[in-house]
Design goal:
The structure holds two protein chains of two kinds. Chain A is α/β, with parallel strands linked by helices. Chain A has helices at about 20-30, 50-55, 100-110, 140-145, 145-160; strands at about 5-10, 40-45, 60-70, 80-85, 120-125. In chain A, strands 2-1-3-5-4 form a five-stranded mixed beta sheet, covered by helices on one side. In chain A, helix 1 (about 20-30) packs across helix 5 and helix 2 (about 50-55) crosses helix 3 (about 100-110). The longest helix of chain A is centred in the C-terminal third of the chain and has 13 residues, at about 145-160. Chain B is of the alpha+beta class. Chain B has three domains: about 1-35 and about 415-495; about 85-220 and about 335-370, Cytochrome-c3 Hydrogenase, chain B, CATH 1.10.645.10; about 225-335, no CATH class. Chain B has 15 helices and 17 strands. In chain B, the strands form six sheets. A four-stranded mixed beta sheet of chain B has the order 3-2-15-16, covered by helices on one side. A four-stranded mixed beta sheet of chain B has the order 8-7-6-11, covered by helices on one side. In chain B, strands 12-13-14 form a three-stranded antiparallel beta sheet. The termini of chain B are close together. The chains are: A alpha/beta, B alpha+beta. At the A-B interface, helix 2, strand 4, helix 3 and helix 5 of A face helix 1, helix 4, helix 5, helix 6 and helix 15 of B.
Chain lengths: ~160, ~500
């Protein structure tokens, strides 16, 4: 059985740079990523977090999430990649309406669901300039990074497992 | 390769913040809270065809797209002067009930419940759904996952998509469901009713049988007497999808009852110089500051508010639980903010029962689900109850249906003033002589959490949760305590693309 891989373009398509995940997903489709049936790669876009995102990952061996990120420490358009295992601990409950992705995956795993390990949940993150203003277009620097982000995803897809 | 730190707290606007200022004696002097605010949605909508709104507004946030979808569809019905066929209204309410079961269950088990099930003084790392599973048993996790899954199936069946439904249109729905689907939904609704009863039983065992928790819920630190708002049906029973907006005063006496298109006569918005947030209040009472009582126009729109504003529940099991809640808490209205968790579970049971009622009605599978609009669009208001409060959509268009003006009052916005007051009251009640610890700060946060505030934009932010800081400053302004939901950040490898 080949590894089942999911690529998720994550974000809100009407919130300026937050839509970058969807645009990278679109670019990957145009490039034909995941089109070979034997590759067992599913590609989709979504605007969810926490439990709902973890539920999307059920049944996959590895997941690549493409999303906008705001660190304030890099130029807009800068592409980073890391895995969930690399992220700082966020085991706590929180005050928004959901739980963290890490916690949600742990819960699903504890309840017997097949979800990927944290080391196999990769993020390809594009430093965003504006994720607070409604708009369908990304800012210019972020838009220019679509190709670079898609290339990082393609590179990760070729890797056997992180 | 360079190294960077991912620290959500460094995001300028991207996190909620509660700041508490102490005086020289170490008592609470003042308190502020800030949450991120998205910009320019109304402007974004202008010039677009109004029929895009059910799809567009459901993108405002990832938490309650179904609520925006429904409020938008109802606003379009009004805008196009069209009355959907009965089957379409029932289908919408059926979808909406499935959504309420999912949303309320998620809040209770993942967010509000851990404070009670695991304990308000438990280490923060245990106050979460894994802590609930550790304490109550693994099967509880399975029940929550199964409840979400089966209700997402219903939302997909009726709404066309699992998360962001697309099926509600001006005049009804884009497609009907089959008889087989209806029967499948009946089965799912029955499971939901059982799950609703299970959840209330759990609340009874864990919370009501523990006097310390009952004392906490009824303590002054979590009590404020405001007006309460909620949609009610023709029997003044709670309804999430349709009805009139009813407001009761702090004594529980009806103060106002209005149709959606009259909302502007009743609701006004106050602004403060220290925040972009608006603070809605009752226009006919007036803004008197962040104070409770009958003379202050501050109102609350939460699950507890809906129960306070209604005369009862429209389904039998939920009605019995409604009566029990008021009996235990000393009659109507209940002013204890933490009782919102209980009210949410009464609503969960009602949503499940209502879903079963609707699914058992053969008309819900009727193919007649659309009345085609044939009049020129003008202006329309649509109101539903979102899980977090009354949700109002108001659109003006030109005669071609192109949007000229848009106004939304979203669920959490109604509660900005009460949330602010609840935080302040909890801080005043819990912080004395400068003594602060994580348990106290968590109890202050519990006041905030009971509202289930939707800080929309951050719901999918990396690493996947809304950061919240609580900062305590002494009389010189120096930070004396700082609680955040994050451990210190680690560095991450970066490849520059």
């Amino acid at each position: 059985m080949p590894l089942r891989t999911l690529v998720v373009g994550l974000g809100n398509p009407i919130l300026s740079d937050d839509g970058i995940g969807w645009q990278v997903e679109e670019a990957l489709r145009r490039q034909g990523a995941g089109s070979a049936p034997e590759a067992a790669i599913d590609i989709l876009h979504a605007c969810v977090g926490g439990l709902a995102l973890a539920e999307l990952m059920t049944g996959y061996d590895r997941v690549i999430v493409v999303d906008a990120i705001v660190t304030g420490q890099a130029l807009p358009g800068t592409v980073s990649h890391f895995t969930l295992a690399d992220l700082p601990g966020t085991l706590n409950s929180s005050s928004s309406h959901d739980t963290s992705l890490r916690l949600a995956l742990q819960m699903l795993r504890a309840c017997g669901a097949h979800v990927p390990p944290e080391s196999a949940v990769a993020f390809v993150a594009v430093e965003a300039q504006d994720v607070w203003t409604f708009g369908e277009a990304c800012t210019p620097a972020v838009k220019q990074s679509i190709g670079a982000a898609a290339a990082v995803v393609a590179h990760l897809l070729r890797a056997p497992l992180y | 390769m360079t190294r960077i730190a991912i620290d959500p707290i460094t995001r300028l606007e991207g996190h909620g913040k509660i700041e508490i200022f102490l005086d020289e004696a170490g008592e609470v002097n003042n308190c502020y809270f800030q949450v991120p605010e998205l910009r320019g949605f109304e402007v974004f909508c202008l010039g677009r065809p109004a029929e895009e709104m059910p799809r567009l507004t459901s993108r405002i946030c990832g938490v309650c797209p179904e609520a925006h979808h429904m409020a938008a569809a109802k606003a379009l019905d009004a805008l196009y002067h069209v009355d959907p066929p009965p089957a379409a209204k029932k289908l919408r309410e059926l979808l909406y009930s499935a959504f309420f079961v999912t949303d309320h269950a998620t809040h209770f088990y993942a967010l509000g419940g851990p404070d009670f099930v695991v304990g308000p003084d438990a280490p923060a790392a245990e106050r979460n759904i894994l802590g609930v599973i550790a304490k109550v048993g693994l099967e509880i996790g399975g029940k929550v996952i199964a409840a979400r899954k089966r209700n997402h199936q219903v939302i997909e069946m009726i709404g066309g998509r699992t998360i962001h439904p697309v099926s509600a249109l001006p005049g009804g729905m884009s497609h009907a469901i089959t008889e087989e689907e209806r029967q499948e939904i009946v089965k799912i609704a029955r499971q939901n009713v059982e799950f609703g009863q299970f959840s209330i039983d759990l609340f009874e065992q864990v919370v009501l049988h523990n006097q310390a928790y009952v004392d906490l819920i009824t303590s002054d630190a979590y009590t404020q007497r405001t007006y309460y708002m909620g949609l009610v049906d023709h029997n003044n029973h709670v309804n999430f999808y349709d009805g009139v907006v009813r407001v009761v005063n702090p004594e529980g006496v009806e103060f106002a009852s209005y149709m959606p298109d009259q909302y502007a006569q009743h609701i006004a918005e106050h602004v403060e110089p220290w925040t972009y947030l608006k603070f809605p209040y009752l226009r006919k009472v007036g803004w008197k500051g962040f104070v409770d009582g009958k003379d202050s126009g501050v109102y609350c729109a939460t699950p507890l508010s809906r129960l306070n504003a209604a005369d009862g529940m429209a389904t039998s099991l939920a009605q019995a639980e409604y009566e029990r809640m008021y009996e235990v808490l000393g009659g109507k209205p209940v002013h204890h903010t933490l009782a919102t968790h209980w009210a949410r579970l009464v609503e969960l049971l009602y949503a499940a029962e209502r879903m079963l009622e609707l699914a058992q009605d053969p008309e819900v599978a009727s193919p007649n689900v659309r009345t085609l609009p044939d009049q020129k669009p003008t202006e329309g208001v649509g109101i539903v109850e979102a899980p977090r409060g009354t949700l109002t959509h108001h659109y003006f268009t030109d005669e071609n249906g192109i949007l000229q003006e848009v106004n939304l009052i979203v669920g959490t916005t109604n509660n900005h003033a009460p949330i602010f007051m609840s935080i302040k009251r909890a801080a005043e009640g819990l912080i004395h002589k400068g003594v602060v610890n994580d348990g106290i700060l968590n109890r202050i946060e519990m006041a905030f959490r009971s509202y289930d505030p939707c800080l929309s934009c951050a719901t999918h932010s990396l690493p996947g949760q809304m950061p919240l800081e609580v900062i305590v400053r002494d009389c010189t302004g120096a930070v004396t305590h700082h609680l955040s939901q994050y451990v210190p950040p680690e560095s991450l490898d970066r490849c520059v693309g």
